Amino acid sequence: MSAFQFSEELRDDLREVRFSFEEDGERVPGALWMPSETDEAMPLVFIQHPGTGSKDDYFVSQPAQLWARRGWICAGLDAPMHGDRDDYDPMGLFREKELQPIIAQQFAAEVSSAIDHIASQYPVDMSRIGYVGYSLGSMLGIPAVSKDGRFRAAAFCLVGEGGFVGPATGPESYVPGLAGVAVRIVAKQSDELIGRESTEALYEALPGEKELIWLPGGHFEIGPDVIKSAEEWMKRQLGEGA
């Protein structure tokens, strides 16, 4: 396992950690927030940004700080070609479609390594790991959660089959790997990018505990309603913190 480089800063009742590690020759930057005073094992929740965003997006950092006060460790990574990545080209992920299966595998390995690194340094309850993704964060999150095998719950927001997710069924599908994960799909009724059919196909294929929530608005309206729906699911599945 490569070196875990990190720096900590105390912000009132929270500890903010900036970190990076190397995975397959690429530097992976991330951030996490957790209570400043605890040694008890806590749930670990990944919050992943949408396309062209980063770990410092409002959708990541603000919920992370709020949820950390509940007693969770909340972490986010810069997706490949995003944020503080050395190879920065957010739209490149979407222009070069032949790279999508490769990027999905890459990010899955990075998430698994991030869990290992964070748990080696901080008190993670390995039986309570969750994932919240928005758009690209969900598209990359489905392969990552499926392949890792340690997640208890996931809230995948604004997502359907295809692209990074791959097919909902068949030998190439990541979906069967979600059998042990309680999944809530949060969708928008007027989504301009993700068709209702692709969202419903993904939902129907999910093999375990699941819910599908439809909220008003379009794809780019990631507001308090989306965040609250993800939070409710994490709270139901992971419980309060330490």
Report on this model:
The mean pLDDT is 96. This protein has a nine-stranded mixed sheet with strand order 1-2-3-5-4-6-7-8-9, with helices on both faces. It has one domain (5-238): Rossmann fold. The protein is an alpha/beta fold and 242 residues long. It has six helices and nine strands, in the order ββββαβααβαββαβα. It has helices spanning 58-68, 92-95, 100-121, 136-148, 196-205, 224-238, and strands spanning 5-11, 14-23, 26-35, 42-48, 73-77, 124-134, 153-157, 182-188, 210-215. The protein is globular. β6 (124-134), α4 (136-148) and β7 form a beta-alpha-beta unit.
Please render the helix and strand layout as text:
Blueprint: E1 5-11, E2 14-23, E3 26-35, E4 42-48, H1 58-68, E5 73-77, H2 92-95, H3 100-121, E6 124-134, H4 136-148, E7 153-157, E8 182-188, H5 196-205, E9 210-215, H6 224-238
Parallel strand pairs: 4-5, 4-6, 6-7, 7-8, 8-9
Antiparallel strand pairs: 1-2, 2-3, 3-5
Quick overview of this protein structure:
The protein has helices at residues 58-68, 92-95, 100-121, 136-148, 196-205, 224-238; strands at 5-11, 14-23, 26-35, 42-48, 73-77, 124-134, 153-157, 182-188, 210-215. With 242 residues, it is of the alpha/beta class. It starts with a strand and ends with a helix.
